[in-house]
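INPUT
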Amino acid sequence: MNARIGGRLLLLLSLTACRADAGDSGGDAHEHVHDTGAERGEGTQFVGCPDTIPAFDLGMSTTSADGRIKAQLRGASSVPPVRFLNDWTLLFSDAQGNPLSTVSLRQARAFMPVHGHYGTPDPRLVRHQDEPAVYDLNALNLFMRGPWQVQLAVSTEGGGETSLTFEVCVEE
Amino acid sequence: MSRLRFISLAIALSLAACGGAPEPRDAASEEPSLTREQLLDPETCKGCHPQHYREWASSMHAYAAEDPIFLAMNRRGQRETGGELGDFCVRCHAPMALREGATADGLNLAELPSRLRGVTCYFCHNTVAVGEPFNNQLELANDTTLRGAISDPRPNGAHASAYSSFQDRNHSDSARLCGGCHDVVTPREVHLERTFLEYQESLFAKPGPGFDTCSGCHMPGRPGAVASGSEGGKQRTRHEHLWPGVDTALSDFPDREAQRRAVECELSLGTRIYEIVQDGLGGLKVRLETSAGHHQPSGTALDRRLWLELVAYDAAGQVLFESGTIEQGELEQKPESSPGFDPQLALFRDWIYDAQGREVHMFWEAAPSAAYPDGRASLTLPAPLTPLAPHTLEASYQIPSFARVERIRLRLRMRAVGLDVLQDLIASGDLSEAVSKEMPTFTLHGASVDYSPRTRTSQPLWPEELRCPDSYRCLLEPESCAKQGAGQ
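OUTPUT
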């Protein structure tokens, strides 16, 4: 190895953010596991999608922590979501269900908690010109099977910024 | 029997076994009809599993014994070691040929029937045990039962079927099966390929919600029939048999474009620029991270070349500084004495050394030495060890005239085999120059951005036309794509 290059490149294995309990929970939750059959070895099984994740359907919604804003899934390229790239259409409304024409979706990103990584790049955000409360999320990258969060940072005129999260799971 | 007649008979038997009938049959009354000899041939499998076959036929598993780089290395290795290399390469590149006694060193592969070349259906689906997970210590039943992940296989007229955890992508045994060949220790005890070891040490192999297997990522599943004629039966999951990684076919081969796009997707989706840090004085650090369950690059990392391309522009679009701008057909790392030497090149790969500690290209030359006790050095992006812990590699640059820099384009790029390795094989007369020209340079789009030093923000450079997985699946399954309206 070129010593100069080797000297300039530093391996950063930061363990400071490790969670001591990571990997200890949710080990028996999913239907992927076959329950019959010969030639089964001892070993570890893929956990898959926890029961805590709601069924994925058009019309499903999530509400911001402060209760002010609701996001509803109005369209999706795949139901349920598939591995790799997905396109979603979201409708934002207030707590009473009225479309929020002043909503601004600042960022959307896919996060996989059990692996601690994002699906990059973030999806492209396109606001519908004729429906200002509706956004397209194009190329939402869910590149692994398992549970994901789709995290949204939104604001409304005079209402400040808040966040919403869809909990979804890629089965395969 | 002539090969043509044999294939015709095999296909006829397969079709007879499948029936081609849309309705489920009274399968329980059918006796498996295919012999072991017939099951050895992937062409037989094609009759009932046409989509699996098409994917496999365009995969590197099918190409394993056709790959001109493998053939060149094996030929040269046998010559330079006086035959001591023996079955080292062919053990994984044509395992059935070796086990059937048709070859001892892989030098006669071109003369063998295609059913014995490459990593075939039978080899994986007949495995019942794995010894030590390196250098192919897989144990086959050598019977006419084919194993898979289905726990309640339907009886059929072709072959007996059984569940096995070695073919179940939800079970850790399946990773051991892959590890059988994706982990290689040379006769001189250099741990050359460490993909399975890297996996074992990663978060992916730890019991818990982060656990997944090799095929969990490399064999995505979809609902669908697993054999023709079984439509309308139980809901099954059909797993892709393409295994995109980084290697691609470099000669005439089925569905080459689909394979290249699949590799482009695989490389692009799971690698990212984790962070860009600047000191305002021209110092720039780019931290890169992979989500793979193994290092990046992995496998024959001594041959792989992964590098970061950086181009800094001023407000007028003039290039102020560049590193890693390597044209197609251009050497990745030039000698220090040559005009194009790039002193700031961020290159990720393994290096191997001989017993005297000198850098070498060919794996059979690698040996432990006082300077390099493992016979190698490695600079590769590590796999995750725990959730939420960064596991980055950092590339550092000193950019001149930094105050004038308006935009920095960063692209992570990769070649499966470095041009220096190919040129070495061409020089020894073992590889055609034409093959070298076919070596693609991939851009890892998930780790490609335009960065603004002024705003400290990045814009992704993902090409809109790259739709994964449709970009490659639509080439392999045009009918289903047309139905979905998802084609490009």
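end of record. The first helix of chain B runs from residue 3 to 18.
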